[in-house]
Predict the 3D structure of the following.
Amino acid sequence: MNKISVIGTGYVGLVTGVCLSDFGLNVLCMDNNIEKIEKLKQGIIPIYEPGLDVIVERNITNHRLEFTTEMKRAVEESDVIFIAVGTPPVEDGSADLQYVEAVARDIARYMNGYKVIVDKSTVPVGTGQRVKEWVREELAKRNVAYEFDVVSNPEFLREGSAVHDFTHPDRVVIGAESPKALDLMKQVYRVLYLNETPFIETTIETAELIKYASNAFLAMKITFINEIANLCEKVGANVQDVAKAMGRDGRISPKFLHPGPGYGGSCFPKDTLALAKIGREYGSPVTLVEQTVRANDSQKRLMVAKIMEGLGSLVDKQLAILGLAFKPNTDDMRESPALVIINELAKQGAKFKVFDPKAMEEAKWRLKNLEDRITYCQNEYEAIKGSDALVILTEWNQFRSLNLPRVKDLLKEPYFFDLRNIYKRDMMEKAGFYYFGVGQGKRDEWTEGQQQVAATKE
Ligand code: NAD
């Protein structure tokens, strides 16, 4: 096989290209962002993804991995071309396919023989067929009739553990219509075939739907435990025990049963919206997913209400915010619950001292509207110092083992909002905090807990 090209070097495209080169294939990664490609050529990784830098360096040195901004080269030199560009939502919730279309048409402009065009971006059902039409249109304009196949190969990696996920997937889904394309895809993933990774060979449409169904299911599971957590607060139950017991049931599994401030990130919010839109379009509404979207939105607002309930007026209150990324081990803040929560708290008059181990640069432009209200700090303790309350928004490991006596000393009042449930209420109350988790007992008991703390202080 000749080279493989990957178009788009974002979280998915870069990891795909880099890991395929590590499988021993010759890979050309292409992006139209000149700055990104210049950095990558020098071995500088434009995103934070643990472990990626070492593999990039190894494969550049071994001449298996190259970066370019030239689409012509990427198309002419390869047999298999992956499309891994973004598919962000447009206003009505559907996926914006303009980047996929631009790439498909560009590929056709430079085709010089048979190609397999692999869609790795998450796209609505029917996009594979549209890619075919776009390519055919461009080939007709050139008056040439090269053969090609379109394959759907959705990606399931998680940011933060992307390298491991790509190289040890639970399954590889390949939606293809020709044995020739399928055979080439098997060569691409030869290493995984040898490792006995399950392969699901299916139609293009089924592969496209598998991705949305998987993400929507996970988003629904998170939302389910969030709603159970909210109920726990009313009835005086502890969601951590509920989730632990549920997770012991093999049919349920303990994963994605961690309550918090709502899901975020570059995938779940847009993919749930897109699936709901597809369902409506085809007259087969996916009502559970529609409700998941609504409940997730309200979960973020419930977190704001929880903080206001605990602190009273937020006018001129200074909040120490720990964590901005949508989850740990990434610098990605796309749709991070932190964005909604901080903006809503700001509307109530709050000011912020913030710290995130990796997302500070991204936060500076995403929260630019609040620059006069936010102080960016060097570490967690600087953020906590002199603040009226501490709010944990992302469960980075380093926030799991805070020096609690020091935190208590540095805070003006020991208000501790743990929106990721990384501490236990009993322990925190014993340590003298006014502790607010998610779903850890009755709300009206908080007042009692606070009174106990106040009594100890006297
Ligand atoms: P991203 O925004 O990080 O990267 C997209 C890249 O494509 C950017 O570098 C951009 O410059 C480049 N690009 C856009 N138009 C281009 C063009 N015409 N030519 C060349 N390059 C172009 O996006 P991402 O997070 O990597 O997501 C890509 C796709 O993968 C999306 O459909 C997403 O839903 C899906 N996906 C993402 C994840 C994830 O965890 N991020 C996981 C699974 C699937």
About this structure: Residues 7-13, 30-33, 36, 84-87, 99, 102-103, 121-122, 155, 157, 159, 266-267 surround nicotinamide-adenine-dinucleotide (CB under 6 Å). Residues 212 and 271 are 6 Å apart (CA to CA).
